[in-house]
Amino acid sequence: MSTAEIPFTVESRKDTGLYNAKLGIWLFLASEMMLFGALFSSYILLRVGATNWPRGSSILSVPLGALNTTLLITSSLTIILSWAALRMKDFKKYKLYMGVTIILALVFLGIKAYEYGMKFEHHLYPSTSTFMAIYFTLTGLHALHIIGGIVVNAYFWGPGSRMWQTDPERFTNRIEIAGLYWHFVDLVWLFLFPVLYLL
Amino acid sequence: MSATNIDTIKNEIRGYITIFSALLILSFVTVGIFYLQLPLGFAIFFALLISAIQAFLAAGYFMHLISEKMLLLYAILALTVVFIIFAIALPSIEHHNPITGTIYQNEHHQPNISAEHHNVP
After folding, report:
1. Which pLDDT score is estimated for A8?
2. Residue A126 CA to chain centroid, in angstroms?
3. What is the ipTM of this complex?
4. Distance from B87 to chain A by nearest Cα, in Å?
5. Under CATH, which number does the domain A62-198 receive?
6. How far away is chain A from the Cα of B30, in angstroms, using its nearest Cα?
7. Which of A168, A185, B51, B114 pairs with B44 at a CA distance of 20 to 30 A?
8. Is the alpha carbon torsion for A187, A171, A154, A89 positive or negative?
């Protein structure tokens, strides 16, 4: 009995022009855009309907938010460099860049946890105000996406990287997919930061 | 791998570093504009404009949307954008209330909540 192989993991399908995983991740990202789009809509609705809305900077730390933005943008660069390294058959550089991506993401989470801790210390909870409720909802959901990305990236950095020995092209595609997800998470933050911290 | 391919990838890497620098500079510009303490309307306009440019750069170059020539992908994303525009426009639609007679006007139509209607002892 022959083993059935999953088709179109490397080469593109003629009808879609994409390999299957790439089409899959874009469909997933489309649903994610709708999720965050709906939440941004909720934010606007709450803000427009409120009689009093605080400037984010009066409650949140702008320097910490800016630092987190820098970390995420840098991680977007390192993950794409890890993919480029694989395309140049340089596995060591891939490990380096992917490792840096994971560390940057962990530092981002550490700063976020510190920010949350400071808020709780000052008795600012999601139930305190509508602003705090939407702040914790949006940044909490985003942090969950970061955690998901770290898990996937850590798998591809560690045990998942064994595929490089057996099927390098497919592994390279997997890193491209992981990168697409990671860029999306970065992109969401590029809107969250000004909307919550600066406006 | 041929030398031409490696050169192509190295060129791409230079492009990625340029986009990274642009994203970083735009982020600093956003923070800089915030410290100018502009009126809220201007601050919102500039912050969202810069975020939109950053989104275009990240999606276009890091996510390769500019170089993808796949109609299906664009169709999926176009549908998503329509949904997002509709979702974001909803508060405005609600505010202008295009369907007359559906809004609860608090000051004109105070419901009668006197004790006699509610059998309050």
Report:
1. 80
2. 23
3. 0.91
4. 6
5. 1.20.120.80
6. 7
7. A185
8. negative
- Domain locations in chain A as residue ranges: 62-198
Mutate to test the interface with A, among B80, B85, B106 (most CBs of A within 10 A): B80
| C-alpha span between A173 and A99 (Å, rounded) | 18
Q: Is the pLDDT of residue B113 over 60?
A: no
pLDDT mean over A27-46: 91
In this complex, is the C-beta atom of A35 within 8 Å of any C-beta atom belonging to chain B? no
In chain B, what residues touch A37 (CB-CB under 8 Å)?
80, 83-84, 87-88
Judge whether A196 and A60 are in contact, CB under 8 Å.
yes
b/e per residue A85-122 (b: at least 16 CB within 10 A): bbbeeeeeebbebbbbbbebbeebbebbeebbeebeee
Q: What is the per-residue pLDDT for B117?
A: 45
Which pLDDT tens digit goes with each residue over A133-161?
999 999 999 999 999 999 999 999 999 99
Is the pLDDT confidence value at B32 over 60?
Answer: yes
Residue B9 touches partner A, C-beta closer than 8 Å:
yes
Contact with chain A for residue B60, Cβ under 8 A: no
Residue among A25, A5, A195 at smallest CA distance from B49? A195
Tell me the shortest Cα–Cα distance from B121 to chain A, in angstroms: 34
Rounded Cα distance, A150 and B68, in Å? 26
Asked if the C-beta of A144 comes within 8 angstroms of chain B's C-beta atoms, the answer is no
Place of tokens 């991506």: A101
